[in-house]
Amino acid sequence: MPDSTQSDRGNAPSFSLVTKPWIPVLRTNGQQDELSLRQVFEQASELRRIVGDLPTQEFALVRLLLAIAHDALDGPAEIDDWVELWGDEQCFAPVNAYLDAYADRFDLLDPATPFFQTAGLRTAKDEVFSLNRIVADVPNGEPFFSARMPTVDRLTFAEAARWVVHTHAFDTSGIKTGVEGDERAKGGKVYPLGVGWAGNLGGVFVERPTLREILLLNLVAADTTGVRIDEQDTPAWRRDPCGPGGAERAPSGVRDLYTWQTRRLRLHFDDQGVHGVVLGYGDPLNPRNKHDREPMTAWRRSPAQEKKLREGLVYLPRDHDPERAAWRGIASLVADASASGQGADAPDYLRPRILEWVARLVSEGHLERGFLVRARVIGPNYGTQQSVIDEIVDDSVSMAVVLLHQQDRRYAEQAVAAVEDADRAVYALGDLATNLARAAGTETDGPRSTARDQAYGLLEAPYRAWLRGLAKTDDPYEQRMAWQRQVYKIAARFGDRLVAAAGDGAWQGRTVGTKKGTEWLNSALADKWFRIALNRELGNPDPSGTGPDTDARTDFETTVKALT
Predict the structure, then answer these.
(1) How far apart, in whole angstroms, are the C-alpha atoms of residue 339 and residue 222?
(2) What is the pTM of this model?
């Protein structure tokens, strides 16, 4: 066998995740590399981030690294411990000895305790299945992503290790082959028990320019309000090896959740790599009311589940909408609410606890108000009863930590209100597109949807730039007014384009039904309604009549008078 699969125990196969390169990284100089666990922690200050074959794989690997850091550093127990780590360039030095201590549990091919696998796992017929079952860019044999088509015959040991981590986090649901010893199997099958734990989440974590900062900023202290971490919280490799089947139990904290064994699997390999897998269900975990355990997602209140389960308060993870950019959902990231209330007093949404932790860092003065972070959002969108992955959301929002300040809510409030300004302008543009289509006698749904999508696209970059600069001002209300003027200008110009593109049919117009009867509608009247709506929704941010859009408004009003 090649050296890469030799162990210190004679000829037993080995691929040590501690010493062998398997984690893809992007260095701060822009070069890509592949590193071992030991190297990742040793070189964290020189690395930009984990790369991953898919964004969801990056999320799963970051959580794995965090579980190692939490356990190796035994905390941080409280915020003062974290401050010491933040100021120490060698803060991850203890990880080296820790990895050595548990090296046997980080061996992908260990015959007794293979990493994140169940030794001897088998089906009644000793079937070995295609690697398609764990490679998420070919779910169930259907190539949703182009990296591997149409089948996966082999993986290197490094690739297989990444997909093993990803499988526990994001594996699809559906009927799976029963394995020997799993009491849940009926007729050789186990019926759907849900996706991997992280697949339930609308994943959120905090990014900075180096991996060292990323890991530290997401290393939440155990004494943080709203995050419950038991003293006995341990990751998967410090627990007894998993046997076939699964066990229902409550998670003990972040180390446990970040490494939750939602599947039972076993890789089949030879000296050249991995060529097959046995995959079954593992430990089930219902996401209901885990908001005090899982910090890397926002949460939404579910009145339907409260009624169904007859519980006073039910929170479920708030997943990401593939059609909604992250900046439009900033309210879920910066909202300041706790679940302490009951009934009508309980909030509808809770921001991710990982951002509550960062909020605490700025509120207690450990991070400067102008300190910039990027909230990275990653999550899959499952289809067909969660049996396939249809889409993967990967987006981010850069913001100053002052937006998360728990005592000074002015900046967060204006950031959320600024998105609402954009929403109102987009709705007005959608109405304009609808009225132009009505004036031309064509269908309205398509033009309305297209206009709104394009308008959000035009507003996205300006909003992100405005948000990054919000902390530089002492008056967030004045910055909000500046944003309204910018939105007005962008929307008005886009309205000009819609009217100009409406054609002769809309210019001539036709009689349409309204709430007050019938009315002659043409492009000039549609534009007049749009300008009135824009002034109403944005408070006419340039009432002096001297702004950049004054001439455009005057031209349209002249046209209205000439045609009506």
Answers:
(1) 18
(2) 0.88
3-state secondary structure of 326: helix
In the Cβ-directed half-sphere of 27, how many Cα atoms lie within 13 Å? 11
Closest CA to 39 of 66, 11, 19: 19
Q: What is the pLDDT of residues 362-416, one digit of tens each?
A: 989 999 988 999 999 999 999 989 999 999 999 999 999 989 887 788 999 999 9
Q: Which of 287, 346, 343, 293 is nearest to 319 (CA)?
A: 287
Unique residue bearing structure tokens 């300008």:
531
Domain chopping of the chain, boundaries: 299-408, 411-563
pLDDT on residue 564:
33
Please count the other Cβ atoms lying within 10 Å of the Cβ belonging to residue 309: 12
Indicate the CATH number for domain 411-563: 1.10.132.100
Q: Give CA–CA dist 407/402, Å, rounded.
A: 10
Q: Are 277 and 266 in contact (CB under 8 A)?
A: yes
CA 481 – CA 271 distance, rounded (Å): 65
Tell me the residue ranges of DSSP E strands in 296-350. Answer: 299-301, 315-317, 349-350
Q: DSSP 3-state assignment of 33?
A: strand
Measured between alpha carbons, how far is 174 from 6 in angstroms, rounded to an integer? 37
